[in-house]
Design goal:
This protein is mainly alpha-helical and 342 residues long. Helices cover 59% and strands 6% of the residues. Helix 6 packs antiparallel against helix 7 and helix 10 packs antiparallel against helix 11.
Length: 342
C-alpha cells in the first residue's frame, strides 16, 4: 500500500507522461515513414499533455504490477487513436520512465535547496553583524574552555554551508541524468540518437548508458542530504545548550511551553533540527542497502529507494526552513562568565 500511494506523485509530473513517447529521430528528410512517425509523436504528445489520468486505477495497477507505468500506458492507449499507439512507450521500460520522472522532479528541488542554503547563510551573517562581537564561553567536550566570541561560534555553523553549495553544483552532472536503457538496459532496441534528443528535450544529461543498477548518483545525493541536515543539526544542538537555564547565552523568541511547568520555554525549533539530522542519518543506510540491484534490474532495491529518498528530501527541506525561522527568532546572543576576555 505504501508503494501504491506513490503513484500520484509520479503521474503528477507532466514530463513523466512525455517520457512514455517513442522518440525516434528521422534518419533523412526524404524518409516518408520517418516523417509520419514524427507527426504521430507530435499528435500523441498533444493528446497526452492534456489527458486526465485515473489515479485510483493507477494505485490499483501499482499494487498489482509494483509500478504505475503499465496501468498508465493502458489508460493512455484508451485516450489515443489506434494509429498513435505505435508512438507510445516504444523501446522503453517502466524504470526508464520512473527514474527519469524522479530526476525531473529533482531539478526544482535542487534549486529550492540552493536558495534556502543561501538564505540561511545570509541569516547567519546577519546574526554575526548583530551579535558577533559579543563574548561567549568557549566549551570543549561540554566543559568551559577559553573565551571566544559569538562570531567564532557562528562561523563554525556557516562554513559547511558553502561546501554544501559547492558539492550541490558538482553533483548535478551525475545526478540530473536521463534514464534510458530499454528492457534490459542495453539500448539495443533504440536508435543511437534517441538518448541525445530525449536528454536535450528534457534538459537532462545523457550519461551514455543506462544506470538501472548503478544507483551511486542517487546515493551520493542522499549522502549530501544527510550532511546538510547534520550540519544544521549542529546549529540546533548548540542553541539548545546555549539556551539552558544557568547558561543563558542566547535568547530566542517563541519557545514552547510546558503543560506542567510554566517557567519553561522549550527550544522546540532547535530540537527539531537535531531530530531531523538524526532522522536522515538513520535513513541513509537504507540508501546504501538499495545500492545492491541484482542482475540487470531490481524490484526490491528499487522500491526501497522510493520509501527512503523522498522522506530524506522532505526532512532536508524542513530542516532548512526551520533553521531560517530559528535564526529570525534569535533576540540576543553572547555571555562571558569570566572577568575579562583579555
Amino acid at each position: 500500500m505504501v508503494i501504491a500511494r506513490l503513484a500520484p506523485f509520479w503521474v503528477s509530473i507532466r514530463p513523466c507522461k512525455i517520457c512514455l513517447l517513442s522518440r525516434r529521430p528521422m534518419r533523412t528528410p526524404w524518409d516518408k515513414r520517418a516523417k509520419s512517425r514524427s507527426k504521430s509523436r507530435e499528435r500523441a504528445a498533444e493528446e497526452i499533455a492534456t489527458c486526465q489520468l485515473n489515479l485510483a486505477d493507477l494505485r490499483q495497477g501499482m499494487a498489482v504490477d509494483g509500478v504505475c507505468v503499465p496501468a498508465m500506458v493502458r489508460q493512455l492507449k484508451t485516450k489515443l487513436p489506434d494509429d498513435l499507439h505505435v508512438a507510445l512507450h516504444s523501446g522503453l521500460t517502466s524504470q526508464d520512465v520512473i527514474d527519469t520522472a524522479l530526476i525531473l522532479s529533482l531539478v526544482p528541488i535542487l534549486a529550492i535547496f540552493e536558495t534556502r542554503l543561501k538564505v540561511l547563510e545570509a541569516a547567519l551573517s546577519s546574526l554575526i553583524d548583530q551579535f558577533g562581537a559579543q563574548p561567549l564561553q568557549g566549551r570543549t567536550r561540554k566543559q568551559a574552555a577559553l573565551p571566544i566570541t559569538v562570531a567564532d561560534r557562528i562561523a563554525a555553523w556557516t562554513r559547511p554551508l558553502a561546501r554544501h553549495l559547492k558539492r550541490l553544483d558538482q553533483m548535478k552532472t551525475d545526478l540530473l541524468a536521463l534514464q534510458l536503457g530499454g528492457p534490459v538496459g542495453t539500448r539495443e532496441q533504440l536508435n543511437p540518437e534517441i538518448a541525445r534528443h530525449l536528454a536535450h528535450g528534457l534538459g537532462l544529461f545523457d550519461p551514455g548508458s543506462a544506470w538501472h543498477t548503478d544507483r551511486s548518483a542517487l546515493t551520493d545525493f542522499a549522502d549530501w542530504l544527510s550532511l546538510v541536515t547534520g550540519g544544521i543539526g549542529k546549529i540546533g544542538e548548540d542553541i539548545c545548550l546555549m539556551a539552558q537555564q544557568g547558561f543563558d547565552e542566547i535568547s530566542v523568541a517563541g519557545g514552547g511551553t510546558s503543560s506542567a511547568m510554566a517557567h519553561k520555554a522549550n527550544p522546540i525549533l532547535a530540537e527539531t533540527l537535531v531530530t531531523l539530522a538524526r532522522y536522515n542519518a538513520t535513513q541513509l543506510p537504507g540508501m546504501h542497502h538499495a545500492l545492491v540491484h541484482e542482475q540487470e534490474r531490481s524490484g526490491s532495491a528499487w522500491a526501497l529507494e522510493w520509501m527512503v529518498l523522498p522522506s530524506m528530501i522532505v526532512a532536508t527541506g524542513t530542516a532548512l526552513n526551520t533553521a531560517i525561522s530559528l535564526c529570525g527568532n534569535i533576540k540576543q546572543m553572547g555571555k562571558w562568565d569570566g572577568k575579562s576576555l583579555s
